[in-house]
Amino acid sequence: MKFSLLSTDQKARRGELQLARGTVATPAFMPVGTSGTVKALSPEEVRQTGADILLGNTFHLMIQPGTEVIDLHNGLHGFMNWHRPILTDSGGFQVWSLQDLRRLEEKGVTFRSPLDGRQIFMGPEESMSIQSALDSDIVMTFDECTHYPVTHEQAADSMQRSVRWASRCVESYHGNGTLFGIVQGGVFEELRIQSLEQTMEIGFKGYALGGLSVGEPKEDMLRILSEIAHRMPADCPRYLMGVGTPSDLVNGVRHGIDMFDCVLPTRNARNGWLYTQKGIVKIKHNRYRLDSKPLDSQCGCYTCTHYSRSYLRHLFQKNEILGLRLCSLHNLHYYQNLMKRIRNAIESRTFEDFADSFHEDYPKN
Fold first, then answer.
1. Do 27 and 59 contact (CB within 8 A), yes or no?
2. What is the DSSP string of 134-162?
3. Start and end residues for every CATH 3.20.20.105 domain found in the chain
4. Partners of 32 in the beta sheet?
5. What residues contact 281, with CB distance under 8 A and at least 6 apart?
6. pTM here?
7. Which CATH architecture has domain 2-262?
8. Residue 284's Cα: distance from chain center in Å?
């Protein structure tokens, strides 16, 4: 992996991430293909939205279909027919979400499969082995996602465990991908700084902020972002995990973040919440029954250039699968176009004006 900074505008960074399977323009948004698919869309359609890289998930792919199935296709790329870069989350967040079904120990986590209830163990070594089998281009360390709310003592214990696990990940990973470290510490700045320093001592090619957007107030997330992002190594990609809304992306770039992922654009699309230049359109609403205008007149995606708001509403009313597909296509196009506009603004040294204008004009609905 090679990361190059091409331009900066205050803390905002425009770069390129060169990987064996392709180049990723940064700042980048990664569509989430948790189980080897971005829901409702083909890999070709996802690529047409402008995506350079996808996210897959170690936890879900381990449970189903299992690495022995993916091995038959020479890795996740062949299995899902996506031949550009893939980043895989380690499974730490998903294990964290199974709070009532897991037992946490220093060696790792024992949990009940949400699929069939069988007992499964995952630790740093197991996560690295699975991600090696998936042949991920970017591999995330196995970490403990810190709860919210949490005491300072609990956050410190959790953070230190993630650091120890990160060391074990480095020792046990023997795949072809590039290993990224994850900074934890909850909403406590000094713990985040300590986590970053210790993770940098281990040494990684990229660094991520994890454990945000897990229930903490937005103000706390922005506070941690403003304190930590600029301290992350300038010559490495900086990744904010599991965040965001369009405003989150703009704020993240403003603080120096290079990479993002989130389920929001596709999840909201399947629920009829569609992003436009003037805010969110809730397409199921009756006001759109006789609306023959495109979803977003400023959007050039396939959905907006071929179909009306009235038709999209009709598809939802009739529970037609096409509605989910067209809306998912639009939302991903909106996100990728937003990232392109951000990159252009950084290159022209107008990002601050762009960000101010975006926050002023974009409704908070």
1. no
2. HT-SEEEPP--PPPSS--HHHHHHHHHHH
3. 2-262
4. 55
5. 273, 274, 288, 295, 296, 309
6. 0.96
7. Alpha-Beta Barrel (3.20)
8. 27
Annotated catalytic residue, options 135, 143, 261, 296: 261
Hey, what are 116's tokens?
């069939």
Q: How far apart are CA 297 and CA 195, in angstroms?
A: 46
pLDDT tens digits for range 164-218: 999 999 999 999 999 999 999 999 999 999 999 999 999 999 999 999 989 999 9
Task: Give residue for tokens 């170690």.
Answer: 58
CA separation for the pair 253, 180 (Å, rounded): 19
Catalytic residue among 52, 89, 137, 296: 89
CA distances to 122, 224, 227, 262 from 188, rounded to whole Å, are 27, 8, 10, 23
- Taking the C-alpha atoms of residue 72 and residue 76, their distance in angstroms, rounded to an integer, is 10
89 is known as an active-site residue: yes
235 classed as catalytic: no
CA distances to 173, 260, 362 from 263, in Å: 27, 11, 20
56-114: pLDDT as tens digits: 999 999 999 999 999 999 999 999 999 999 999 998 777 777 776 678 899 999 988 88
